[in-house]
Design brief:
Helix content: under 10%
Structural class: mainly beta
Number of helices: 1
Strand order of the largest sheet: 3-2-5-6-25-24-27-28-21-20-17-18
Radius of gyration: 23 Å
Shape: globular
Length: 446
């Protein structure tokens, strides 16, 4: 993402303030640590071909934010005077209808002198595929058919009275697993699920007619939730070459996988369940299994936040109470709405060394950093701030991995008069980007 002389409303929030001042962004009353400088090396992973639409900034200690040096061969090298630092990258994320998307990492050189910054959210559309799998689908009426081959995908829907449809799944010439799933679009309940292993697509399109009626019914397990509160549910089935994601938007939620005879020991089932509370509190669990099973939703350990404007600046002071899990890490999510089709997002992660025992944070004032895109400069009508305590164990995308997030938040009311639009809520886990999927999922407004 980028900057100019105005305020970035997703992080630099004008609430009862009139000027875009420069504000230090660091923990209050942090435990003193020996200070020293060094070099921060930021490696950009999966960068788009054109980096001109991105913004990079850094903070040395508690100094004002500055434009980061230009990347050389995908690497940004930053000399620092202090041990603590902040690094920000921003872009317009096509996965979220070109919504401004900002990521901020707060850490210390002692903990992390080398930082990998994922740019997958900023990717443009993939290059056009040069081959395809194509043919006719035989099925029943009013069903959604998901076809996945490596990174390529196709969705085919049949309407009332339609029992067949032609399809063309654009694909790159390769060998990969073809995953097929059929579901009821009103409930996302899967009634057919199959894997064809090691399908070969060459330079010429592969002709294959698919009879979904002949496919086996999936193995299923019920996922219990509290029906009194909204729930988000998703399941990712992953083979060594292909991934398919299935969402459940209505209870009862059912975990569905290909039948056991089609599954391999290397296949995994990644289950994500979020249970909202009465307000902006929720608990989220992402766990990976080798066989279909439900996750257990724990009680939310994160208490209420305090969020207040800082007089004379564009920053907000955010405070929370740490949970009683010493290994927990913390991250903040900010979103601001400014009318229809106008939402900005920011995801901020904190290392234990940067927090230094503190549980407060001031949103950074980036208004003095040159280069921020005018497209990102909106005056917000509402701002939502959430803080999550995350407990992670295991290796991502492998069986046994667990990510549990305890979240609470505050929504600030109208900041300016405008046609109001509810601000969507986002669920974020930076680990997801390691698997090539979006780090954040946009949920309905709360």
């Amino acid at each position: 993402m980028k900057l100019g002389t105005s305020c970035f409303a997703g992080l630099v929030v004008a609430v009862g303030a009139s000027a875009c001042g420069s504000s230090a962004s660091g923990p209050d009353a942090a435990i003193d640590q020996p200070d020293h400088g060094g070099t921060l090396v930021v490696t950009l992973t999966t960068p788009p071909a054109d980096l001109s639409t991105l913004f990079f900034a850094y903070q040395d200690g508690s100094d004002a934010w500055k434009v980061a040096p230009s990347p050389v061969a995908g690497v940004i090298t930053i000399p620092l005077v202090h041990n603590k630092y902040g690094f920000a990258r921003g872009c317009l994320a096509p996965l979220f209808l070109d919504s401004p998307d900002l990521r901020v990492t707060h850490a210390t050189l002692d903990e992390q002198a080398a930082l990998a910054m994922e740019l997958g959210q900023c990717q443009a559309q993939r290059a056009a595929s040069t081959s395809a799998i194509q043919g006719t689908i035989t099925t029943v009426a009013q069903r959604t058919h998901d076809l996945r081959f490596g990174p390529d995908r196709k969705t085919v829907t049949t309407g009332v009275g339609e029992t067949s449809a032609s399809y063309a799944l654009a694909a790159q010439p390769s060998t990969a697993d073809l995953i097929l799933a059929r579901s009821d679009p009103t409930t996302r309940t899967v009634d057919r699920f199959a894997v064809q292993r090691n399908v070969v697509v060459g330079a010429n399109p592969l002709a294959e007619n698919l009879d979904f009626n002949a496919l086996a019914a999936p193995d299923t397990v019920a996922q219990p939730v509290n029906p009194a509160y909204p729930t988000f549910f998703s399941m990712i089935y992953r083979t060594t070459s292909t991934v398919i994601a299935l969402l459940g938007n209505k209870p009862p939620y059912v975990i569905a996988t290909p039948p056991a005879a089609q599954r391999l020991a290397t296949d995994t089932i990644d289950l994500a369940v979020q249970q909202q509370g009465a307000g902006l509190d929720d608990v989220f669990v992402d766990q990976v299994f080798s066989s279909p099973q439900a996750v257990t939703l724990p009680a939310n350990l994160m208490g209420p936040l305090t969020v207040a404007p800082i007089a004379g600046s564009q920053s907000l002071h955010v405070g929370w109470t740490p949970i009683a899990v010493p290994t927990a890490s913390y991250q903040a999510n900010l979103s601001s709405g400014c009318g229809t089709r106008c939402t900005m997002y920011a995801l901020i992660s904190f290392s234990a060394g940067w927090l230094g025992g503190s549980s407060t944070w001031d949103t950074p004032d980036l208004s003095g950093v040159a280069g921020w895109s005018p497209r990102l400069l909106y005056a917000p009508t509402s701002v939502t701030v959430t803080v999550s305590a995350n407990v992670e164990s295991g290796t991502h995308a492998t069986a046994g991995y667990s990510f549990v997030s305890h979240t609470n938040g505050v929504k600030l009311g109208a900041v300016r008069a405008a046609s109001p639009a509810a601000t969507p809520h986002r669920l974020c886990n930076p680990a997801w980007e390691r698997d090539g999927r979006p780090a954040c999922m946009t949920l309905p407004p709360r």
